[in-house]
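During the no-cost extension, the postdoctoral fellow (Dr. R.K.) reprocessed legacy sequence entries with the updated structure-token encoder. One reprocessed record is reproduced below for audit purposes.
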Amino acid sequence: VDAGWSNALAAKLVALTMPGVPDVYQGSELWEQSLVVPDNRRPVDFDLRRRLLDDLENVLALPSPDRADAISEMAATWEDGRIKLLLTTIGLRLRREWPEVFLSGRYVPLVTDVTVPAGLVGFARIAGARAALFIAPRMTAPLIGETGALPLGGEAWKTTRIILPPELHGRVFRHQITGADIVP
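Re-encoded structure tokens follow.
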């Protein structure tokens, strides 16, 4: 099973959230398979992207459990690119809504304790009272298996943990993709 699309989503999350300015090329909001820089030299189907963004708005307006189900369906049909567009949209919106976190916030690597045959990259961005955690999977092919499904949820990751630094204890976080509250 090709886990490349899972790795591409993880790389997009890291690119959108790490220190610096993220590269987001016009036309590469969906899967881009060219061997050259994917800039605006190629025709871009803006109508398709508008329709997909409208659909994403409807998904993001759903209550958390329904939203999670809709996003799981996007992950199951990853080939259409909606899952990448969703991640890109959420990442860019978060950068717009919390500029201080991304422009001047501290970058804090997170310790992970992974108990499955895969890996995680985790870091926090902290600015004053605002803190955002970013966790991206690595080397997930053994977890994806024959089904090709993303390793989502606690069952896939068993007893894997993210160790938060003391300054982040006692906070409630919002999962930006599913809308669920996370109480560490």
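The chain has a mean pLDDT of 89. The two ends are 33 Å apart (CA to CA). The remaining legacy entries will be reprocessed before the final report is submitted.
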